[in-house]
Amino acid sequence: MFCDFIISGAGLSGVLAAQLLKKLGFSYYIFDKSNGSRVDYRTSAISYESARFFETLGLWDAIAPSAVPILDIYTFQEKSASFLHFESGDADIDSPMSYVVPNLVLQDVLYRGIEINYAQAYEKIDYSHDRVRVNFQDDTIVEGRYMLVAEGRNSNTAGLLGFKMISAGYRQACVVCNLRSTGREHYNIAVELFLEGGPFALLPLSKKTDFSLIWTVKFPFAETLKNMDEQQFLGEVQKISGIEFKKVLTPRISYPLLLSFCISPRKGPVILIGDSFHAIHPVAGQGFNLAVYDLRDLYNVLNKYGLDAFDGLIDTYISKRRKSVLSMVAFTDFLVRSFSGKSVLMRCARGLVLDFIESNMKLKRFFVTRAAGKDL
């Protein structure tokens, strides 16, 4: 068979790509080597700009009832009185700067109407300047004008086709789960505390006493936290947050953190998107949003110029995305490396930085605008 786009990978980025192609009337073939099991208890921070793109695709109305607005963000560092307070009103937008959405809701909405070919592995991929050919193990052959690789970090296809990745490990892992307090409400406030081992964040969920925990720790401690008795685990969270929790609502999940970025995410008609193109630290909550911006910009180009003109515009599209991604890669990497560690001098310096930003409205507006996804 022949189609306009072949999509490799049926995670959130892959199916969102299928949704935008469907919206524009282009044919696509999306496949995934997995069997289709997609239970994901995590949450995603959805920026103002991402929400606007979902609205463009006609998806936001189904997501919105489960989207919890973040109205304020407080940032602290351990053993310091310095802090930052961001609020949506600091930026020139007419909505909250971001929302918290359960991934189960995103999956439910984004997968609607998308026919996915699961449990399908390929034998080989060949491409020329204007065609991609995928030979599958079941003897199916699919050809397309373009191929979008949305397999997530450590993409097999990116490796097979020789895409050069810049990678760095943080020697950290992230522990995530949802929690219920004994009565303390979140008031739509997100809190992030920079600790020696990494950032500790609590995000608001739909029930006023429910929180999403994203806790970055050093590798060995992640497994300890994951396997700890529930009450002991809740005690550890309370020590840091000062909030008394009574229940862990979802399984505790841990995964290693790394930085991965491809300088040249295009080879002929093959283009990397999402985490296959860029995987960043969750410190700023922008990982999935960057993938959405990849697809928003792709949608805008295809919608304005059409498929026949796309080949001449790919490099312009890639250049814009590279600039956006590089700025976020640099920012998140700087945060992680600057706000970790024991040094008293560094802690004092970080405190001065926090105080300076807190007192400077122009800088606060810049950071809130970035959190909302403007200019990314």
Low-pLDDT residue intervals, each spanning 5 or more residues:
none
Largest sheet: 9 strands, mixed
- Strand % is 25-35%
N/C terminus separation: 36 Å
- Specify the structural class: alpha+beta
What is the CATH level 1 assignment of the largest domain?
Answer: Alpha Beta
Architecture overview:
It is an enzyme of class 1 (oxidoreductase). This is Ubiquinone biosynthesis hydroxylase, UbiH/UbiF/VisC/COQ6 family protein. Pathway: Cofactor biosynthesis; ubiquinone biosynthesis. InterPro entries: FAD-bd, FAD/NAD-bd_sf, UbiH/COQ6, UbiH/COQ6_monooxygenase. The chain is of the alpha+beta class and 376 residues long. It has 3 domains: 170 residues, 3-Layer(bba) Sandwich (FAD/NAD(P)-binding domain), CATH 3.50.50; 95 residues, no CATH class; 87 residues, D-Amino Acid Oxidase, Chain A, domain 2 (2-Layer Sandwich), CATH 3.30.9.10. It is 35% helix and 31% strand. It contains 11 helices and 20 strands. The strands form 3 sheets. Strands 5, 6, 12, 13, 14, 15, 16, 17 and 20 form a 9-stranded mixed sheet that branches. Strands 1, 2, 8, 9, 10, 11, 18 and 19 form an 8-stranded mixed sheet that branches. Helix 1 packs parallel to helix 8. The radius of gyration is 21 Å and the shape is globular.
Would you spell out the secondary-structure blueprint of this structure?
Elements: E1 2-8, H1 12-24, E2 28-31, E3 43-47, H2 48-56, H3 60-63, E4 68-70, E5 72-77, E6 83-87, E7 98-102, H4 103-110, E8 116-117, E9 122-127, E10 132-136, E11 141-149, H5 156-160, E12 165-181, E13 189-195, E14 198-204, E15 210-218, H6 219-227, H7 230-241, E16 245-248, E17 253-262, E18 266-267, E19 270-272, E20 278-279, H8 287-305, H9 314-338, H10 344-358, H11 361-371
Parallel strand pairs: 1-2, 1-11, 2-8, 5-13, 11-19
Antiparallel strand pairs: 3-7, 4-7, 5-6, 9-10, 10-11, 12-15, 12-16, 12-17, 13-14, 14-15, 17-20, 18-19
